[in-house]
Specification:
The chain is of the alpha+beta class and about 725 residues long. It folds into 3 domains: about 290 residues, Galactose-binding domain-like (Jelly Rolls, Sandwich), CATH 2.60.120.260; about 290 residues, Alpha/alpha barrel (Glycosyltransferase); about 120 residues, 60s Ribosomal Protein L30, Chain: A (2-Layer Sandwich), CATH 3.30.1330. It is built from 19 helices and 14 strands. The strands form 4 sheets. The chain has a 5-stranded antiparallel sheet, with no helix packed on it. Strands 11-14-12-13 form a 4-stranded mixed sheet. Helix 18 links the parallel strand 12 and strand 13. Helix 4 packs parallel to helix 6 and helix 4 runs antiparallel to helix 15. The longest helix has 23 residues. It is globular.
Length: about 725
């Protein structure tokens, strides 16, 4: 079929509107037929001609609705997401009773608007699904950068089987977590609606015009579904786009609607079989229209997405979230390698703009809080130890607070107050339980304590926390490392928090780690072990990042390739020790990959300067200081290359801060940090005459200072072309 208005070739012969311009098309007759045994659900189907007055009335009613509502919809199999849907004026939870929502403007319908009696949201344009999948790219597919943000009732993120909806390498089909677990436990109290929220590559907006729901052959699918979209920066303020009654015996059904730009798409399975729901796949089809640039055009790197570091790390995150949530739900106890280390991994990934389910991260933190004793230590449900679970819990909360911008965490402060009283005369925080490779050695326990003390100091400014951290750093610097983990935690602690002399000591350990890399690119838990594993390799890569080792170095690149080769199809990694758990190996592999952000290159900096006249850099400095941290030096190195490659280029280096602190303090700090960058460039051979520096404090924000994510964006250095 060809659109008479714009000439667009339409693959679905039954489409009521054009997928390009959105104008209505002549549609074949459709009638409403009640499905046997479900008289509360109606669906529109093409019928053989019936010369009866009732049939004529049905056609007329359908055509009237088509003319009034405007819109179409295509559904295909695969759905299971949970997110709060909100109307433009409220934030009501769409998983509960939904108040009437006005019909979304634009989409045409081939049937009447939904009504409460049908189980659909009142006023949403009701359309007829098609068994034909429309032409276009499935931008929800994992291999195309699509992600499941959340699923109703899932233990975390995409849930135990959510990836099946977008990733053909995982489970064959999707079911709610509660059904997957039955009958082994009592978590089978699931209900409709089931909501699945999708996002696209790098959470960018896309023009979408169809959702395709694919059922499992021989298994009844959902009876009704809705499509909601949002363009917000977070998965909020969804607006209804279309609704459809589905034939639960038809394997593939497409819900098509007028093209709409969306950053998030929510598929609501409104009703279906009472004892089960199962799907094979859900596709979201990208539309086209004049002036719209497809995702692949805007992101040429999509072509290499399947083999990328970010793809592997994201798949690890998608395994880690539901696995940790499932473990917590069933074990009902605190685990050093579950809550604490998963919080660390997810917080680091979230900081580096990976898709992390905030509810999952918060649930892990909230559960950890419930296991804190009144005196401040973490209650261990197993062997009765206190020191080891407490330093892990405090470390996990420190990363959670730092990543989420928590400014006053009473739980963390109770941990560190209890811990300070257990620090020995050398500055070490002892272990009272060891299980290699997770809890192993006093460098490990003291480094976790230092991280906790420094976060408490950042929140309160209390000198005793800084003093305890300094004592711990002195111990770590003097202690001889034995295992790979010893070396890793020594590098991390001294690189993040140490003085210049201690950082030099960390640099020597980095060189030692480079010599211990195996021929396959990985590292082992101790130098005398012959087999590499993901646990040690992920640890070393993150230590390299903290120490400022370039991701382009041979050792780093080989370590990354080792992790990419050894990832399980489920997205997890396994270790080589006797411990069967995949939590710690996966967490460290994710941190090793996700913790290393994509560095700007000299070429990309030049392109942005030519196009916009300035470029934003995120260079890490020491807390409340103008000292460039080791992991910021590779960025400075790219600026050096930029200026050496372009000898006529002159740059103004401008510092900016968030709004925490006084205006005068922030102004001075921003000036000093800009000056530190200029000095680093001069030391590297760039003439000072080609550079200027200035500070603007918090006066020129580019994001909301009310959130940690916004404040992190505002803490920046800008290069401005002179």
């Amino acid at each position: 079929m060809v659109c008479p208005s714009c000439g667009y070739e339409i693959p679905n012969e039954n489409a009521p509107f054009c997928g390009a311009c959105g104008k209505p098309l002549a549609a074949p007759p459709a009638v409403v037929q009640i499905r046997p045994g479900t008289d509360h659900v109606a669906k529109s189907e093409l019928q053989s001609a019936k010369k009866s007055s009732k049939w004529v009335v049905g056609i007329a009613a359908s055509l009237v609705c088509l003319a009034i509502a405007g819109g179409g919809l295509v559904i295909s199999r695969r759905a299971h997401l949970g997110t709060r849907a909100t109307t433009p004026s409220s934030a009501a939870d769409s998983s509960s009773a939904v108040s009437p929502v006005p019909a979304a403007p634009g989409p045409q319908s081939d049937s009447r608007p939904a009504s409460p009696a049908q189980g659909l949201t009142p006023g949403v344009a009701l359309v007829t699904p098609s068994p034909a999948v429309p032409a276009g790219t499935n931008i929800a597919a994992s291999d195309f950068g699509g992600e499941i943000e959340s699923v109703s009732g899932a233990y975390g993120g995409p849930g135990l089987q959510g990836e099946a909806l977008i990733d053909s390498r995982g489970q064959d089909s999707w079911q709610p977590d509660a059904i997957v677990d039955a009958p082994a436990d009592l978590n089978d109290n699931w209900s409709y609606p089931q909501e699945i929220v999708f996002s696209f590559y790098k959470r960018d907006t896309a023009l979408v015009s169809a959702v395709v729901v694919e059922s499992v052959e021989g298994v009844p699918g959902p009876d009704a579904a809705e499509v909601w979209t949002s363009r917000e920066s977070s998965a909020t303020n969804f607006r209804p786009v279309a609704a459809a009654h589905l034939a639960n015996t038809v394997p593939v059904q497409a819900i098509t609607f007028a093209p709409v730009e969306a950053r998030y798409v929510k598929v609501r399975l409104v009703s279906g079989p009472p004892d089960n729901v199962q799907l094979r796949q859900i596709q979201i089809i990208e539309a086209s229209r004049p002036g719209y640039d497809p995702l692949l055009t805007r992101h040429p790197d999509l072509a290499k997405w399947k083999a990328s570091v970010r793809h592997a790390a994201q798949r690890g995150i998608d395994w880690l979230e539901p696995a940790a949530g499932d473990w917590q739900e069933h074990k009902k106890c605190y685990g050093c390698h579950v809550q604490a280390q998963t919080m660390m991994g997810l917080a680091i990934a979230q900081t580096n703009n990976y898709v992390v389910n905030a509810d999952t991260l918060r649930a892990l933190a909230d559960f950890t809080r419930t296991k804190q004793d009144d005196d401040g230590h973490e209650k261990d449900e197993g062997s009765g130890n206190q020191l080891t679970p407490t330093h892990f819990a405090a470390m996990g909360m420190a990363y959670f607070d730092e990543g989420g911008g928590v400014k006053n965490d009473s739980t963390l402060l109770r941990y560190v107050d209890w811990m300070i009283g257990r620090v020995d005369s050398t500055g070490a925080f002892p272990q009272d339980y060891e299980q290699a490779p997770i809890a192993q050695g006093t460098i490990n326990s003291t480094a976790n304590a230092v991280t906790s003390f420094m976060q408490a100091y950042a929140q309160t400014g209390t000198a005793k926390y800084k003093s305890a951290a300094d004592q711990g750093l002195a111990f770590i610097a003097s202690e001889k490392p034995k295992t790979t983990q010893d070396k890793v935690f020594k590098v991390i602690a001294l690189s993040r928090f140490g003085d210049p002399t201690q950082r030099e000591a960390a640099a020597s350990i980095v060189q030692k780690l480079k010599t211990e890399q195996k021929a396959d690119g990985g590292w082992s838990e101790s130098p005398d072990m012959k087999k590499s594993d993901a646990f040690a390799t992920g640890q070393v890569l993150y230590a390299f990042k903290e120490a400022g080792v370039s991701p382009e170095s041979e050792e780093f690149s080989n370590g990354v390739r080792y992790l990419l080769r050894t990832q399980d199809p489920s997205g997890s990694w396994t270790g080589s020790s006797d411990r069967p758990s995949s939590f710690a190996p996966t967490m460290w592999a994710v941190i090793g990959l996700a913790g290393n952000v994509e560095l700007p290159t000299a070429d990309s900096l030049k392109a942005d300067l030519d196009k916009y006249g300035k470029v934003v850099l995120y260079i890490n400095f020491d807390f409340n200081k103008a000292t460039i941290r080791p992991d910021g030096k590779p960025i400075v190195a790219q600026v050096v290359k930029l200026m050496k490659d372009n000898p006529e280029l002159k740059l103004a280096v401008n510092g900016h801060t968030d709004n925490i602190g006084t205006a005068s303090y922030n102004l001075k700090l921003s000036e000093e940090r800009a000056g530190a960058v200029v000095n680093a460039l001069v030391v590297s051979g760039i003439s000072r005459g080609r550079l200027s520096s200035g500070g603007f404090g918090s006066g020129q924000p580019i994001a909301d200072n009310d959130t940690e994510k916004g404040r992190a964006q505002n803490r920046r250095v800008e290069l401005v072309k002179m």
